[in-house]
Amino acid sequence: xxxxxxxxxxxxxxxxxxxxxxxxxxxxxxxxxxxxxxxxxxxxxxxxxxxxxxxxxxxxxxxxxxxxxxxxxxxxxxxxxxxxxxxxxxxxxxxxxxxxxxxxxxxxxxxxxxxxxxxxxxxxxxxxxxxxxxxxxxxxxxxxxxxxxxxxxxxxxxxxxxxxxxxxxxxxxxxxxxxxxxxxxxxxxxxxxxxxxxxxxxxxxxxxxxxxxxxxxxxxxxxxxxxxxxxxxxxxxxxxxxxxxxxxxxxxxxxxxxxxxxxxxxxxxxxxxxxxxxxxxxxxxxxxxxxxxxxxxxxxxxxxxxxxxxxxxxxxxxxxxxxxxxxxxxxxxxxxxxxxxxxxxxxxxxxxxxxxxxxx
Length: 360
Ligand SMILES: Nc1ncnc2c1ncn2[C@@H]1O[C@H](COP(=O)(O)OP(=O)(O)OP(=O)(O)O)[C@@H](O)[C@H]1O
What we know:
Blueprint: E1 4-13, E2 16-26, E3 31-35, H1 42-50, E4 57-62, E5 65-66, E6 77-80, H2 92-102, H3 104-107, H4 111-124, H5 140-152, E7 158-162, H6 170-187, E8 190-195, H7 198-204, E9 207-212, E10 215-220, H8 222-227, H9 232-237, E11 242-252, E12 255-260, E13 265-269, E14 279-284, E15 290-291, E16 301-311, E17 316-322, E18 325-331, E19 342-346, E20 353-356
Parallel strand pairs: 3-8, 3-9, 6-7, 7-8
Antiparallel strand pairs: 1-2, 1-4, 4-5, 9-10, 11-12, 11-14, 12-13, 14-20, 15-19, 16-17, 16-19, 17-18
The structure holds adenosine-5'-triphosphate.
GO molecular function: ATP binding; ATP hydrolysis activity; transmembrane transporter activity
Protein name: ABC transporter related protein
Keywords: ATP-binding, Cell membrane, Membrane, Nucleotide-binding, Translocase, Transport
């Protein structure tokens, strides 16, 4: 099992800083996800770890060994690509065996050893019986399984997955992400996963690193990053948020008090920052707001009128018009809200997040 550490890594293409002084550590056996919008530098970071790219600055370590300049084939990583990158003229068996055959001498493998290992990998990804098919005779999901088997068969120190589910339909994506998570836990391979899909990232990862414009903005366990975003980009990119701008008035015990002109009210919330500037943003997730029957205003009391109702199956999403703004609120699917209905809500102050009002 291998720890992966990046120290201050920077990669520049011409005038584009693809990766900008990034540092993080992936623990041994962990599933670590790089999450961010297109072009934020996720793939470049992965390619640096694989050794396909050499950074201009910074260092990469596998455990305590520096590998920044080590050739890719000496790192023993395996990569799975979005487009599978299977060899169309080779059968499933030969695709999976390929990595073993090129290492055959070094690893002193007999044809029987190879057969055993290929069988093991195909069993892991549930493709037994399809050994003699060609990639084009397989569905997208099956092709992705072959790609996964081909990566796992060499028993890599580090498994690198670059948007592996992007080409699959929604249902299959959910099925495969479950399977990847199960497999990864079973084998305990240190895995670095790249995606722009925040739900996929939260569901599959031990920890997530959120990137934007080449920079790593925050990393932590999914719950930590979701519930305690330290900046506006993370709050907005991960999950859905109501973001309201206001003026920080000071601390009331451990709570930040914020005047919000759009609500014509003061809101209390918690902050991951000890010091807050005057201009702040208040983040309220749509699911934190609770209906109250109280007419007596309490902390973080919000009253408004519903102007849009959307039934989403597992919940009802409403738009609540309040003050000069409109909030997204999730209600249980047992409720039948209607347009024009008045709603009285409380946003529990421990679930309201206050952060500086800057987008970086
Ligand atoms: N070989 C290259 N030559 C020039 N610019 C590049 C090269 N590779 C990446 N870039 C640029 O570096 C930036 C980061 O690209 P990267 O592919 O790492 O982003 P990404 O987050 O993986 O995006 P996507 O999800 O779209 O693949 C982008 O602006 C991209 O255009």
